[in-house]
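SEVERITY: medium
COMPONENT: batch folding queue
REPORTER: lab tech (J.R.)

DESCRIPTION
The queue accepted two submissions in a row. Attaching both inputs and their returned C-alpha cells so the on-call engineer can compare them side by side.

ATTACHMENT 1
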Amino acid sequence: MPLVTEAFTGPETSFSRASAEEVYAFILAELNEALSLVEENPEFGRVSRRAVLHYLAKVHLTRGYETFAADSDFDMAAQLADEAAGGYDLSSLSFHDLFWPGNDQNPEILFSIQYDEGSLNLDGDPAGSIQSAYFGPYHGGEGLQQGYPYRTYSLIPTSYVYDLFSANDLRWEGSFMNQVYDRYYDFYDVADRSNLVVRRYFPQSWEVADTAAWRAADPAQRAATEILPYELIQADPAINRWEQPIQYFDNMIPDVRKFDDPRPGVFGNGTSVRDIFLARMAETYLIAAEAYFKAGNLPAAMDRINEVKRRAELNAGDLVLTDPAQVTLEEILDERARELIGEFHRWFDLKRTGTLRERVMRYNKDVRNIPDPFTGPDGQDKILRPIPQDALNLNSNKDFPQNPGY
C-alpha cells in the first residue's frame, strides 16, 4: 500500500507502494506516540490508554507472523495485552448484558463506532449502523411491520459455527435467536415471555430429542411452532440446508441477535443506532492468549483464554481448559469464533495466522464449491484483498502493481 504520513494540501496523483515492513513500523511508531497523548480514563467514546495498548498488542501479534518480525513481537504483544486488560474481570458483565440493546456504553468496550438517533439524517437516505442486517436469513418484506428485523443474507452462519458451541456455553443463546416469537422483537420488549406464541424454534444438537413432548409441554404457545432442529439440518444431504443455495434459507436458520435494535420503523431497512464494538476486553484476553501461545508460554496462554471461557460457562468448570497442551492455534481460532462472531475480525484472524485458505476450504461452502477458488490468473493465491481497479487507473504511477492473485 502507499504510505502517506502527512496530510495533503493539494491534489496528489502519484503513489508508490511501500513495503509491509515499512507500514508496520509507521503504525507502531504512531501508536507508541499516542500512548503519551491519551488519558487513562477519558469520557466514554474518546480514545483511552487501554485502547491504544490493545491495538499495539494486536499489531505486534500480527507482525509476529511476518518474515520481517522482530524477535520480541509475541512477547511484546502478550505484555501489552496484559497491561491493556489490567486485571479487568470479564465476569463483572454477562455476555447477555454485554450485547443487550441500549447497553452499548459498558465498561468492556475499549473502542467503538458510536451512533446517535439525533445526529442521523432520518428524513433522507437513513444513515446509521447496518451491522445487524448482515447476519441472518430474510424474514419477508413485511418484516418491519411485524416487528421482525430486516436481514440481507450477506453473511449466513455455517454448520461449523453451530458445531463450536456446547450445551454448557452461554454464548450459544447469547449470540443466536434460537426461539422466535410471533413478533421477533418481543424477545426484547416483553419481560414475561411465558405466554408468547413461538413461531419458529431452532433446537441445537443437545436440545429437544422429543419434539412432540416439547409441544405438549405448552400447547397454547407451541402447537403451531415450526421446529427446525440442528440434527435435521445435518442428517440428510437432500435437505441439508447448509449446502443449499442461499435462496433456500428464508426463515430456515437462526439469526445472530447480538446486534439487534428492537426499535423498528425509526430507521430504514437494515439500519439502526446500535454501536459497532471495534475493541473489547474479551478480545484483549484472546490477543494475550495467542501471543503467549506463539511465544511458547502455554500455561499463561491457557490462563488468558480461560478468562474468556469462564464467563461463558453455564456452570463453573464446564468450559475451561485444564491442561496447557489443550491450547492450540485451532483452539484459539475456535474460541475467537465463539466469542467474536459477527464482530468483523474473522478475515484478519485467518490472514494473520496463515490459515485463511485451509479453514475457508474446510468450512465455507460458498467458497469450497467453486473450482480452485483461491488461485488467481497469475497462478498465485488470493490471500490479500484486491486493490480497486479505479484506484489503479487514477494513479499516474502505472508501475503500481495489483495484489497477487488478481
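ATTACHMENT 2
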Amino acid sequence: MTAHPGFHSLHEETVETLPVEGSIPDWLVGSLIRNGPGAFSFPDGSAVDHWFDGLAMLYRFTFDPGNRGGGVADEDAGGAGRVDGDAVHYRNRFLRTDAYEAARAGAFDGGFATGETTLRSRLLTFLREPYDNTNIVAERVGDDYLALTESPRRVRVDPNSLDVLGHDEYEGDAPTGQLACAHLKRDPATGTLVNVETAFGRTSRYHVHALTPDGERRHVGSVETEKPAYLHSFALTPRYVVIAEFPLRLDPLRLFKPGRQAPFIEQFEWEPDRGTRVIVLERTTGEVVADPVTDAVFGFHHVNAFERDGGREVVFDLETVPDATAIDSLYLDRLRAGSFGALGAQVDRFVVDLGSATGTGRYRAGDASVSRETLYDGGTALPTVSPARWCRRHRYVYAMRTDRPVNEWARGVLKLDTETGETVEFGDGGYFGEPIFVPNPAGDAEDDGVVLVVTLEAGSDASSLVILDGESFTERARARLPHAVPFDFHGRYFPEVRAQRAGEE
C-alpha cells in the first residue's frame, strides 16, 4: 500500500451482501452508485500521475431494510447474498472501456494530467474518439445510466451489474464541444438536465444544452469567449444557467503550436487580472442577461443556485480556493506525501443583481453587479445539498470537513446551516469522502432524511458505508466493506435501483 492508504490501487472486484450495524430506515430501498479512480498503476508497470486519471471504478450500495427478499441482490452473489436483518448489497467493478483495455494492454496514453502529446492531437482525439475513462460521477438520462467525465463521450452502464453497455454520444445538428462539464444539473420541477460544453477554435464558445426526461437534446444558447476557462461544473436556477468563468484560461492558439507538450490541464494559465466573469444565460431565449466580473477565484464545485426578489437576483453557492494551484496539489506524488491543498476550500455565496428591467421585462446586461460573502471559512470539500432543494433556496450544505491550512485528508463531514452559520460535525477517526443527502420521501423538513458517506478506517485495510441521521447528524447505521476503497469522487442515489427479491425476475 502507498504512503497514504486512500491512493492505493484496488484490483479486487466483488459482489457481497453486507450485514448492517444499526438500522436502515424502511424508506431507504434504492441504490447509491459512486464513481472514482480505482487503480493508478497497471500490469505493465506504468502508472498515472494525477488523481483525476485513475481508471474508473463504480461502487453500488443497494439498501435492503429487513433483508425482506432473502437478501438476493445479484444472481451471481452466491452464498454471500444472505444475512439476517438489514443488509446492504455491495458490488464494485471497473468500467470496461477503451481506456481500461488500453491500460491493461500497456497502451494507456494519458488523460487529464498524465502523458505528453501535442495539444492539437489531443483535441482532435476528443473530436474523433473522445477519452472514455469516465471516472467522475454516475447520472441517469432518460432510461440510461451513464458514467461521466469531462469528455462528451459518455459510457452507458447497467446499474445492477455495472457492466458497460456501450458508448453514448449526442446526435443531431446542435453545436457541441470538445470538453463538457462533468456535472450535469437537473431541474427537479421538469426533470430536465442541463450541461455546458466548451468548443475550442479561433472563436471559442460555451455551448449550453438541455436534455428532456426522454433524452431529447435541445440547444439553449452559446457564449463566445476569447480564452476558454477550465469548467468542471456550473449553476442552474429555474430561469438561468450561471457559468463562473474562472481566470484559469487556455489560449486557443496553442492548438497550432508544434511539438509535444505538457499534459492537457497544464496548458491552462492562471490570469488573475482577468477576475472571475459570471455569465448568466436565460434558459428560454439563450440570451446572456448579465456578465459582471468579480475577484479572481477558482473552484471545482457549485453547491446550488436559486432566484430571489422575483428573479431579479440570482444566488449561487460555490466552493472556492484563492487560485488554481489546487490542481497541482492533486498530483499523486503530492497527495501520497500528505499535500491536500485542494481540500481546504471555503463556501462562498455570490449574488448577481441583474439590474433594471426593460419595458419587455428583460434585463440590461450592463446594469448587473455581483457581490460575494463567505458562508463558511473552515476547510471543506465536495459540498452537496438535498436533491429536493436543487434550483431552490436551500438551508443546509453537507461537505467533507478539513482544516485550513490542510495537513491531512478529511477526518469528518459537516452540516452547514447557511441561515445561522452554525455547523454540526461527525467523525469516527477515519477518512471521509463526499456526503450524499437522501431526503425522506414522506418528510417535510429539509433535513428529514439520511446522509450517506464512505469512510476509510485509519490504520486498517477496510472501508465502511456510514448512514447518518439528516437532522441530528449522528450515526444511524454502518456496513463494513470487504476491502479498502480508494478515495473516489461523486455519488448519486437512485431510488428506483432496488434489491431483487426472491422469486422476482
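NOTES FROM REPORTER
Residues 114-120 have pLDDT under 50 and may be disordered.
No errors were logged for either attachment.
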